Amino acid sequence: MFASVVGVRRLTARMVRITLAGDGVGDFHYAGPDHLVRLFLPVSDDLQLPTGSDWWTELQAMPEERRPVVRNYTVRRIDHVRRRLDIDFALHGDSGPASAWAGTAEPGDRIGILSDGARYQAGDADWQLLIGDETALPAIASMLEGARTPVHTLLEVKDEQDVLDLAGEATWLYRSGSPGSRTVEALRALPFPPGTPYVWVAGESTLATSVRRYLVNERGVDKQQIYFCGYWRGTPSTAGAAAESEREPAHA
Ligand SMILES: Cc1cc2nc3c(=O)[nH]c(=O)nc-3n(C[C@H](O)[C@H](O)[C@H](O)COP(=O)(O)OP(=O)(O)OC[C@H]3O[C@@H](n4cnc5c(N)ncnc54)[C@H](O)[C@@H]3O)c2cc1C
Questions:
Q1: Which residue's CA lies nearest to atom 33 of ligand 1?
Q2: Which among 15, 54, 144, 171 counts the fewest CB atoms within 10 Å?
Q3: Residue 92 Cβ contacting ligand 1 at under 6 Å
Q4: Which CATH class, in words, describes the domain spanning 127-251?
């Protein structure tokens, strides 16, 4: 569906909330706090969107000069009545088209949105462990608003400028070393409550995989109880895989 920017609000120095409006928002089936949307960012004045179910093939068939750029984002909030949808963008400069677009977005700017459902499924776990970086913050913020079991939240961000008010408590960790290393260190010191956990971890791919490896290998958490997803890749050597991940994020 097509959507237009109707609001832009800085949440922190490096996070901006873009409010989008569109006729399709009224019927948008919101499935949960990590609801994934593909954003189609225009590269020319003539924004065209794929219309069929095989959107990737259709997109590749478009002439390069008109083919929109696709990036993955999370629905932070939806208001079906007012037909408004919020997306929170972590700003990381102009090197990426999505961050560059969000950093300069203004009311009236148009993009395309394709819904791709939610993955979060806490089921009947006794407690939850929510872990992520800036890019997972929108999903985790929504999870905290709806959590019905005790939650431990660890957020690994650049520095104190990334800290946001959330609906529940969170431990904020400031990155140093490789992504995830501060988080694993904090996990080592965290006594786990009794019962079965549900773990949701997303962010830079080294963070997601290192946390999962630690929890499975050293804390005996059942793999089935862990959802993990590389939301972006920080190393140049994986740039090709990052492009592929726009089609299908590397989630479990
Ligand atoms: C399921 C899913 C949901 C997501 N939801 C959100 C969300 O709600 N909010 C959000 O901000 N992000 C979210 N992301 C992450 C977002 O898709 C990536 O950060 C994406 O790469 C940004 O695109 P870009 O065009 O700005 O940069 P790209 O063109 O993809 O990358 C350009 C360069 O920037 C680097 N880069 C990419 N992202 C970051 C970053 N965050 N910090 C530092 N460097 C970076 C890359 O390594 C690359 O070198 C989500 C990802 C997935 C898979």
A1: 96
A2: 54
A3: yes
A4: alpha beta
